From TrEMBL:
Belongs to the short-chain fatty acyl-CoA assimilation regulator (ScfR) family. One of its GO terms (molecular function) is DNA binding. This is Zn-dependent peptidase ImmA, M78 family. InterPro entries: Cro/C1-type_HTH, IrrE_HExxH, Lambda_DNA-bd_dom_sf, Rad_response_metalloprotease. SMART domains: HTH_XRE (SM00530). Pfam families: HTH_3 (PF01381), Peptidase_M78 (PF06114). Residues 9-65 form the HTH cro/C1-type domain. It comes from Pedobacter nyackensis.
Length: 354
C-alpha cells in the first residue's frame, strides 16, 4: 500500500509540475518539504485530513492515490522538443498516463477490446514524396475514407483505436505520439496551449499519425523526416485527386478567396494548401514563393484571413462513461472517479448534459 501511494503521489506531483518545495508552498507550508519527501519514498502515508489537502492542491480525488491502474508509455517523439524543460516533459507524460489509465480502465469495464492495426504494415520504407502519396492513398483506401473532406480528424482516429488527447504545456511542444506498452494502444497528444486553431489541430494530429504509421527510412536527416510527416498530413487531409478536382491540373494564379473556401471545406490551412499544390506541381515553385511572401507581408503566417471553425473534439470517453453508468456496470461515484471529478462536480456535469 505504501509503495502504491508513493508512486501515485509522485505522479500527481509531476502532473502538476511541482517540486516538493512547490507543493509545500502550495499547501501554505502546513507540511514541510522533508515530510512530503517521506510520502514519496513510501515511508509514511498521510492521514485523512492531510490527504484531503493534497487532493485540493494536486487536483485529484482521494481514490487516485490508491488506484493501481497505471500505464507505461513507449518511446516518445515530441515535435520541437529540444528546449522543453524536464519539469514540462514530466507534466505532459504524467497527464497522458493518468488520462489513458482511466480511459483503458473504462474500456476494460465495458469489455471493449482495443485492436489497432497499422494499415501500412509491411510497406516499404518511405523516402520520397511519391512514397508519401502512395501511403496516404493506401490509408484512405483501407480506412474507407474516399477522397472527400474529413469531418472530424479526432473522431476518425478514435474510431481506428488511436487515443487522442489534449494537453496544456509550454510553447516548445506541438504534439507527441507513442504506444501504451503491453496492449499496443497508439496515443496522440496535442498541446492546446500552442496549437490553438482548429485547422492546426487537425494538421498536428495527422503529422503525429505519420510518425505512428510510416516506416520512414532510417538514414534520412531529421529535417527530411519532419517534411515527410508534413507531406503525409497534407496528403491525408487533402488528397491529390480532390485537390486537382478543385484547382485543376495546372494553375498560374490562385485567388485568395479560392484558398479560403477550400480551407473551410477541407479543414486545412491556406498555407498547407499552397504547399500541397506546389508539391503536386499544380503551381510552380516560384509562384509558391510569391504567395508565401504575400502572406508574410500581410502578417498572415500565424493568423490567416479565413478561419476554420469546426471544433476538433471527441465525445467517445464521455459516451462510454455514461453507457457504463446506464448499464449499472459502474456506480455514480466510480463514474466521477473515472472522470477525475468530485461527486458534486460530476452531478453538475450530468445535469448540464440533460
Amino acid at each position: 500500500m505504501n509503495n502504491l501511494f508513493a508512486e501515485r503521489f509522485k505522479s500527481a506531483r509531476l502532473m502538476n509540475g511541482f517540486s516538493l518545495q512547490d507543493l509545500s508552498d502550495k499547501l501554505n507550508k502546513k507540511i514541510s518539504r522533508q515530510a512530503l519527501h517521506k510520502y514519496e519514498k513510501g515511508e509514511v502515508i498521510p492521514d485523512s485530513v492531510m490527504l484531503g489537502l493534497l487532493c485540493e492542491a494536486l487536483s485529484v480525488r482521494p481514490d487516485y492515490f490508491f488506484r493501481d491502474a497505471q500505464v507505461q508509455l513507449g518511446n516518445i517523439e515530441f515535435r520541437k522538443l529540444k528546449k522543453l524543460p524536464a519539469k514540462e516533459e514530466h507534466k505532459i507524460l504524467e497527464h497522458a498516463k493518468d488520462y489513458l489509465s482511466r480511459y483503458l480502465e473504462l474500456e476494460q469495464l465495458l469489455n471493449i477490446e482495443t485492436k489497432f492495426s497499422n494499415p501500412l504494415e509491411g510497406m516499404k520504407p518511405i523516402k520520397s514524396f511519391d512514397d508519401v502519396e502512395e501511403a496516404a492513398i493506401k490509408v484512405r483506401e483501407i480506412w474507407g475514407m474516399g477522397i472527400g473532406a474529413i469531418a472530424s480528424v479526432v473522431e476518425l482516429l478514435e474510431d481506428k483505436h488511436i487515443k487522442v488527447m489534449y494537453i496544456n504545456a509550454g510553447n516548445d511542444y506541438d504534439g507527441m505520439q507513442t504506444m501504451v506498452l503491453g496492449n499496443n494502444v497508439p496515443v496522440i497528444a496535442i498541446n492546446e496551449n500552442k496549437v490553438k486553431k482548429e485547422d492546426r489541430k487537425r494538421f498536428t494530429a495527422m503529422h503525429e499519425l505519420a510518425h505512428l504509421l510510416l516506416n520512414i527510412q532510417d538514414d534520412l536527416p531529421e529535417k527530411e523526416k519532419e517534411i515527410i510527416c508534413h507531406q503525409f498530413a497534407g496528403a491525408i487531409l487533402f488528397p491529390a485527386d480532390a485537390l486537382r478536382n478543385e484547382l485543376g491540373n495546372q494553375r498560374t494564379k490562385i485567388h485568395l478567396q479560392e484558398l479560403g473556401a477550400l480551407k473551410k471545406e477541407y479543414g486545412i490551412s491556406m498555407q498547407a494548401i499552397i504547399m500541397r499544390a506546389k508539391d503536386l506541381k499544380i503551381i510552380s515553385d516560384n509562384y509558391c514563393k510569391q504567395l508565401f511572401t504575400m502572406f508574410k507581408q500581410m502578417n498572415w503566417r500565424v493568423d490567416e484571413p479565413v478561419s476554420y471553425e469546426v471544433k476538433e473534439t471527441s465525445n467517445r470517453f464521455d459516451q462510454l462513461l455514461f453507457r457504463a453508468l446506464a448499464q449499472e456496470i459502474i456506480s455514480f461515484s466510480k463514474a466521477a472517479a473515472l472522470k477525475n471529478l468530485k461527486v458534486a462536480e460530476f452531478h453538475s456535469l450530468e445535469l448540464s448534459m440533460k
